[in-house]
């Protein structure tokens, strides 16, 4: 039994906070889970992350950016995600294929058909069972992200926060388009309801998903 759950959203939408809350919730229920992220995960992918998010790399071409994301994902799938799913672990991933389509497709305006093909190739047949799209206005999310970077002194990962607001508007529009096309997988949650209510909704949906998965496996029971 395995479950692949991804979290998506514009900068500052609260993904990291909600992933950690869900991890604690599942751990208390003694359900095996692991948190990972994109770009990132294994050492090679983490090195690619540094290149991608470094604000000094202003001259990076959109196509170069796309290929680096796909390369990072291929390694991530091979070293981390696929082995964990094979072991029956619930994988909680901060961004995945949808982010590439939203940021590089809608944001950078790279051909979305090309991105979908590359996504299929790099993800090696792995697809999320469930995706949470934490939705908030782009300007609000960007303001939160910039404040977060200043407080954590994480300016070395602020390349996307330096993009113009129009870019972030396009990214949000892209995410909502993805959700509209795949409502069975992508669950849109309004983050303006507050951190606590957002998590309550996430927990409710995950409990339903776990119950559904459990019901399809004779004799299988989650530890509670």
Give a summary of the structure in a few sentences.
The protein is α/β, with parallel strands linked by helices and 224 residues long. It has helices at residues 15-28, 43-53, 62-86, 97-107, 112-123, 138-152, 165-181, 195-215; strands at residues 3-8, 33-37, 90-94, 130-135, 186-190. It is globular, with a radius of gyration of 17 Å.
Q: Unreliable segments (pLDDT under 50, ≥5 consecutive)?
A: 215-220
- Class derived from helix and strand content: alpha/beta
Number of strands: 5
Percent helix, as a range, is: 55-70%
**Architecture, CATH level 2?**
3-Layer(aba) Sandwich
Strand order of the largest sheet: 2-3-1-4-5
Q: Report, as a whole number of angstroms, the end-to-end distance.
A: 16 Å
The CATH superfamily appears as P-loop containing nucleotide triphosphate hydrolases
Rg, Cα atoms, Å:
17 Å
Explain what this protein looks like in three dimensions:
- It is a single chain.
- With 224 residues, this protein is α/β, with parallel strands linked by helices.
- It has a single domain, classed as P-loop containing nucleotide triphosphate hydrolases (Rossmann fold, 3-Layer(aba) Sandwich), CATH 3.40.50.
- Helices cover 56% and strands 12% of the residues.
- The chain contains eight helices and five strands; from the N terminus they run E-H-E-H-H-E-H-H-E-H-H-E-H.
- The chain has helices at residues 15-28, 43-53, 62-86, 97-107, 112-123, 138-152, 165-181, 195-215, and strands at residues 3-8, 33-37, 90-94, 130-135, 186-190.
- It has a five-stranded parallel β-sheet with strand order 2-3-1-4-5, sandwiched between helices.
- Helix 4 (97-107) runs antiparallel to helix 5.
- The two termini are 16 Å apart.
- The relative contact order is 0.20.
């Amino acid at each position: 039994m395995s479950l692949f759950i991804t979290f998506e959203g514009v900068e500052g939408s609260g993904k990291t906070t909600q992933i950690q809350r869900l991890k604690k919730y599942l751990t208390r229920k003694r359900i095996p889970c692991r948190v990972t992220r994109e770009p990132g995960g294994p050492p090679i992918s983490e090195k690619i992350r540094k290149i991608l998010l470094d604000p000094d790399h202003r001259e990076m071409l959109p196509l170069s950016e796309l290929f680096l994301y796909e390369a990072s994902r291929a390694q991530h799938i091979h070293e981390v995600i696929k082995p964990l799913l094979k072991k029956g672990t619930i994988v909680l991933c901060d961004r995945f294929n949808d982010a590439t389509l939203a940021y590089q497709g809608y944001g950078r305006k790279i051909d979305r058909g090309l991105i979908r093909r590359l996504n299929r190739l790099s993800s090696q047949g792995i697809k999320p069972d469930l995706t949470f799209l934490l939705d908030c206005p782009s300007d609000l999310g960007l303001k939160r992200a910039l404040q977060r970077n200043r407080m954590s002194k994480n300016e070395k990962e602020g390349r996307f926060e330096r993009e113009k607001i129009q870019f972030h508007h396009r990214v949000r529009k892209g995410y909502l388009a993805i959700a509209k096309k795949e409502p069975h997988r992508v669950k849109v949650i309004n983050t303006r309801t507050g951190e606590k209510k957002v998590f309550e909704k996430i927990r409710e949906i995950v409990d339903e998903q776990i119950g559904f998965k459990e019901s399809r496996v004779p004799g299988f029971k989650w530890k509670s």
